[in-house]
Amino acid sequence: MNPDGSGIRRLCPNSHRWEEYPDWSSDGTKIAFMSNVGYSSWVINVMNVDCSGLKQITQGPGEDGGPRWSPDGKKIAFTSNRTGRAEVYVMNADGSQQTRLTTSSKVTSFNSPDWSPDGTRFLYMHSLPNSGEIWFMNSDGSEQTKSMDAYGFGDGPVWQP
After folding, report:
1. Which residues contact 42 (CB under 8 A, 6 or more apart)?
2. pLDDT value at position 13?
3. How many of the other CB atoms lie within 10 Å of CB of 3?
4. First-to-last CA distance in the chain?
5. What is the C-alpha to C-alpha distance for residues 77 and 69, in angstroms, rounded to an integer?
């Protein structure tokens, strides 16, 4: 769609999957998104903006979602519950070298990782049983630091350029 909301069109008219959370690469040539491939099974895909070159880049098990391109387009951050809890992961843009960055026993899930404009840090949400917290960490998973309580907030904090 255009920035003013006009010109809405479906990118891939022949898709029969449930698809969510698209994210454009910084060069504007690719889109990463999650899609449903079965009951409680979600994967991350990448395709060109003209729908060509569709490639599934995660295999699960479980639910992989919320993909976010790094500013340089070389990596994608995402969440996955493949270990039984939703955690933040990062991988190369082709799906290789999937690395878990968070580990917690008290958090019900980690949501919405978003890259800093320079690609060195993440902003993300901890979802707790009756509340939430906004955290920062380095892009290698080090220096995880709580920023603030986020009572009543959604699960999508984002950086401002």
Report:
1. 34, 35, 36, 60, 62, 63, 64, 65
2. 60
3. 6
4. 22
5. 7
Edge to edge, the sheet with strand 109-115 lists 109-115, 121-128, 131-138, 145-149
**pTM (predicted TM-score):** 0.85
Mean per-residue pLDDT pooled into runs of 10, the chain (161 residues): 83 68 92 83 91 89 89 94 86 96 67 87 76 84 81 66 68
Q: According to the model, what pLDDT value does residue 46 have?
A: 95
CA gap 127, 125 in Å, rounded: 6
* Amino acid 159: pLDDT: 77
Q: DSSP letters of the chain?
A: --TTS-----S-TT--S-EEEEEE-TTSSEEEEEEEEETTEEEEEEEETTS-S-EE----SSBEEEEEE-TTSSEEEEEE-TTSS-EEEEEETTS-S-EE----SS-SEEEEEEE-TTSSEEEEEEEETTEEEEEEEETTS-S-EEEEE-TT--S------
